[in-house]
Design a protein that fits this description.
The chain is of the alpha+beta class. Helix content is 37%, strand content 21%. The strands form 7 sheets. Strands 14, 15, 16, 17, 18, 19 and 20 form a 7-stranded antiparallel β-sheet that branches. Strands 2-13-10-3-9 form a 5-stranded mixed β-sheet. It has a 4-stranded antiparallel β-sheet with strand order 5-4-7-8. Helix 1 runs antiparallel to helix 2. The protein is globular and about 80 Å long. It starts with a helix and ends with a helix. The structure holds ligand 5U1. Ligand 5U1 binds next to strand 3 and strand 8.
Length: 677
């Protein structure tokens, strides 16, 4: 770009865009583009500025730390500015960071780095005077933030008074306030049920919860705070290393990230980045990258800062979990229970580590809530194994020919009427097993791993078998012959034989698996287990009325109704009989086996396990009649903490509530005592 006018206008355009997005994100808490788009524009401006340093102005977004605070909260000056971090987006960026360090530190043999996941939340400063929490503040623009003391006081992982001893007269702790994934899902679920607006992602939910003038609302939200540095520190001394500082903060009562590690040199950083990348989806909170910090505080001092960020730290970002793309069309899929789900067909886009071309739009209410039209630019989120979702739209980019999404009145597969039960968001095809789609889904469910576990009978093969007219129901599966299967596309004599053998093997099953495989509405694995243990055999279950069904754990009137209705319908009883005639069998559960020594007890299992798999431990506890929950509450009987993780949030909560805790070894002993291990 050689023309100076053109160059200046490019600069202005980028700055205006970034300032606008900053304002939407930080001030209004209502961003219109995903973070990835913001990062991209920011990088573009940075590159342009590095080529033309003479054009850098003080109002450039690269020259400041954050954004103007909201005016509703009183303002707080940060005596030690709250910095932000430079970003790396590739191994090369990280290697350049390392080269800059090497140059400044005159080629040391070894650099020790502290590695921490970068939590996707809100940066916060907490000021303690003589051990008492005096003030909580947001980062704001880095020098002035907002006073959110009343709000931070409601967060249980923030100590109101420092624990232990040896803390300085004045201590400012900095860290991230965030919402764990599970809390976020629950909050959104409640909002959906109440017909209220949902949050797009856990970060927005944390920001919205913290920026409440009424601290009672904040108190009702599942927020956490994780400490990652110290600001002011008067009247004492700090250890030599950053990781030791964090350990010290932990002793004074703060949650620190259990994934924190010390590595050597950039090769260690890269290895940590890959390892955490693989673990990212299974962490209980969202992270958007890894922060690497030179661990030695004296070296940090030597390295110093450039305008908005320290030279001794960098955030290596993970692939974005949100991206923008265009909605090409909407198709309607019919599920096992007849639910008609709108599915967005998208211009393929790389997000969350994979190329996504379809995303769920959930139901009619969700389409209305999003206000989405065909042709719109939409924001797609794919986090972990969760199916991709359209979370918002970029209305400003709506084309003139955008068209409305029309919900079908008849089933796109079998043409039966689609009905919506008042009060339910879901529209359903009324065709039942007449509907080819419902039949296919029922057979896929029957064959799936947690149901009859028919090895080799995947979704594609079920589709082929139904489409070729070889099967109409689940019982037909057991009438298949190898010669018929071998004729199908991508099958041959060997794979056909294998399928027939797998079908044969699946005939010997358990009562709970069989119940689950029937695909009764609202009967998941846990409910199937509860029903099978309570009733012990099929005849007793068929004879049960809705009232007695509700005696089973977690079975309320709705589930009881679905179970009773399913077992009343003649065609379902015929299907069960046909399966039994085909040879499907199981051992009934004797009264002694139904003995559940841990009935009425709720366990929470957390931390890393080495003696048995955590999922296995949960299953065995359930086998003994215990309920296994995901979060600690007053109803919890015991929290099992693997790996001695005393900074684990569930362990901390158990301590706070005075709930019994147990180590992995103690759990193993308990399971052995009851003869399940
Ligand atoms: N884990 C972590 N996140 N984070 C964010 N460490 C960390 N350090 C930061 C920021 C802004 O700033 C340092 C300069 C203290």
């Amino acid at each position: 770009m050689s023309n100076p006018l053109e160059l200046q206008s490019k600069f202005d355009e980028l700055k205006n865009q970034l300032n606008y997005h900053n304002y939407r994100y930080y001030v209004l808490d209502d961003p219109t583009v995903p973070d990835i788009e913001y990062d991209r524009l920011f990088q573009q401006l940075k590159e342009l500025e590095s080529q033309h340093p003479e054009l850098v102005t003080p109002d450039s977004p690269t020259q400041r730390v954050g954004e103007a605070p909201l005016s509703a909260f009183s303002q707080v000056a940060h005596e030690v500015p709250m910095l932000s971090l430079d970003n790396a987006f590739s191994d090369e960026d990280l290697e350049s960071f390392n080269r800059r360090l090497q140059d400044r530190l005159k080629n040391p043999d070894d650099i020790e780095f502290a590695c921490e996941p970068k939590l996707d939340g809100i940066a916060v400063s907490l000021l303690y005077v003589n051990g008492q929490l005096e003030r909580g503040a947001t980062r704001g623009d880095g020098t002035t933030g907002e006073d959110i003391t009343q709000n931070v006081r409601t967060i249980t992982s923030i100590p109101l008074r420092l624990m232990g001893e040896g803390y300085p007269e004045v201590l400012e702790v900095r860290g991230e306030i965030y919402m764990p994934k599970q809390g976020f899902e629950r909050l959104n679920q409640k909002a959906r049920e109440a017909g209220e607006k949902t949050f797009v992602n856990p970060r927005n939910a944390a920001a919205g919860s913290l920026r409440q003038l009424d601290a009672r609302i904040t108190a009702s939200r599942p927020l956490q705070m994780c400490a990652y540095s110290v600001g002011r520190f008067d009247g004492g001394s700090l250890p030599e290393r950053h990781t030791e500082v964090l350990e010290q903060l932990h002793q004074w009562g703060f949650l620190i990230n259990p994934e924190m590690a010390v590595v050597h040199n950039i090769s260690g950083c890269l290895e940590y980045y890959r390892r955490l990348g693989e673990k990212r989806d299974s962490l209980p909170y969202d992270i958007d990258g890894i922060v690497f910090k030179v661990n030695n505080l004296a070296l940090q001092q030597t390295l110093g800062f450039v305008s908005r960020a320290p030279r001794w730290a960098i955030a290596y970002k993970f692939p974005a979990q949100e991206e923008m793309t265009q909605l090409l069309s909407v198709e309607f899929q019919v599920g096992r229970t007849g639910a008609v789900t709108p599915v967005a067909r998208l211009n393929p886009v790389f997000v969350g580590g994979v190329t996504v071309s379809n995303a769920t739009l959930h139901n009619r209410d969700e389409i209305n809530r999003l206000g989405v039209m065909v042709g719109d630019t939409v924001v797609v989120r794919r986090a972990g194994d969760v199916i991709p979702q359209v979370v918002s739209i970029v209305k400003s980019q709506r084309p003139a020919d955008a068209s409305e999404i029309v919900f079908p009145e008849t089933c796109p597969v079998c043409d039966s009427p689609v009905e919506t039960v008042p009060g339910e968001a879901v529209a359903r095809c009324t065709g039942g097993l007449i509907c080819g789609a419902q039949r296919k889904e029922a057979i896929k469910h029957f064959a799936s791993r947690k149901a009859m576990d028919i090895d080799g009978l995947g979704d594609k093969l079920v589709e082929q078998l139904v489409d070729e007219g070889l099967i109409h129901s689940v019982a037909d599966l057991y009438r298949l012959e190898a010669s018929q299967v071998a004729e199908l596309e991508r099958m041959g004599p060997k794979s056909a034989e294998n399928l027939i053998a797998a079908l044969e093997a699946s005939k010997s099953t358990s009562f709970e698996r069989f119940l689950y495989s029937l695909g009764i509405r609202e009967v998941g694995e846990a409910t199937a287990r509860g029903l099978s243990r309570y009733f012990g055999n099929l005849d007793a279950l068929i004879a049960a009325n809705e009232e007695s069904l509700q005696k089973v754990d977690d079975v309320g009137p709705v589930v009881a109704h679905f179970v009773a209705e399913f077992l009343r319908q003649e065609h379902n009883l015929e299907a069960i009989e046909a399966l039994q005639k085909a040879g499907v069998h199981w051992d009934d559960i004797s009264v002694e086996e139904r003995h559940e020594p841990l009935a009425d007890q709720t366990y929470v299992v957390t931390g890393s396990f080495s003696l048995i798999k955590r999922d296995e431990a949960k299953k065995l506890l359930q086998q003994l009649g215990a309920k296994v929950a995901g979060s600690v509450s007053a109803k919890t009987h015991c929290v099992v903490v693997g790996g001695g993780a005393t900074n684990n949030s569930k362990y901390v909560k158990a301590q706070e509530l005075g709930i019994q805790t147990m180590t992995e070894e103690e759990l193993v002993a308990l399971l052995q005592e009851h003869g399940v291990l």
